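Q: I have 191 residues here and want to know how they pack in 3D. Can you give me a structure?
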Amino acid sequence: MTIKPPNERPPVDAGTAHRFAIESHLPGTTEAECSMQSVLPIIACVMLLGCGPPPPVPKETHIKQVQLAIVKAGGETNILTESRTLFMRLASFTNNSPFDMAGDRRFEGLSGIRSLGDAFQYEPSEPNRVSIRVHNSHFDGYFIVLVNPDLPQPPSFERIAGNVGFIEPGGAANRSQSGPTTEPFAKTIQR
């Protein structure tokens, strides 16, 4: 007869112990489901590490988006009317920091312009334009410009509809390069 030390436990079936551990941590799951649940986060991490940003959105897509937004905002005539009101309100404005359009009193009653983007900048040294940011996603954001319909258009203005368009950095020479933007506003937003 062999005598066992008092602290020694009887042998346990390994399969039963493994199943007990799984069931005690994830009630109602089988061993196969638990194994799959532990593998999925690893697969997701591997996929994310190999992924880069999506390809840039074509300029034509942005143009169509802006044209549709103008139609939904009441059309070109409504945007022109609201633009005249906005530029009259901005004439005495001296602060050029970007801010949210929806919460600013200068945009009260200008729902058409507010629907074109989410933030704007007015530079008093360039009283003929307002830069508007259109933010679709982290990877798809761009800038359009609302020009004062009562002043001459800037030479680099590329009209989309009415007094809404793009102003390319450096003028027409750079139009074939990257997507639409307005240089001063882009720099201010990044600060």
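Q: Anything worth noting?
A: The longest helix spans residues 31-50. Residues 82 and 110 are 6 Å apart (CA to CA).
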